[in-house]
Amino acid sequence: MMNYDVINILDMIDSVGEDAVSAALSKFSCSRNLEIENFVKRNAIDFAKKKMSITYLVYGDNGKIAGIFTLTHKALKLRNDVLSNTTRKKVQRYSRLDKHTDSFMVSAFLIAQFGKNDNFKTDEILSGSELMDFTFDILTAVQHDIGGGLVYLESEDKEKLLKFYSSEPNQFVKFGERYSEEDNVKYIQLFRFV
What we know:
single chain
């Protein structure tokens, strides 16, 4: 069974230096989503140094990056009319309803990037569920230290991705969508509680 280590990119930079981290990231490939690959290779270090987002590197026993996830925090607007009564009660733990806009503004954790490395060759491939478990291990620890309770992400409007995010054990729920003219892509916005 493959064991994995989850390493904060800033800790790795402190440990081995920025050049070594950059060299490791240059070998990351994500053919299913080139946006993730480009972010890892071109922006992950700079964004972390500026504290805009932190990328976590998931290393396998073979010393190679198996996957990554990038976390940050951001204000999230949830329209009241799209929430069930049960969800609304949970959201009210973290925010108050703005009656003028009939929505909640919530400080939320954003999973900004999430992907596996195509170049990670082993008999046991890191599963998406394992990668999400590692992500929520970090988010649970952060929640314990600073509070908060909502996590969200944006997914391309692809059936397989949406099924992964919305099914057990992930249970993300759709709350909106947006269209990126820059990417020419429709994104589905999903959230869940930590």
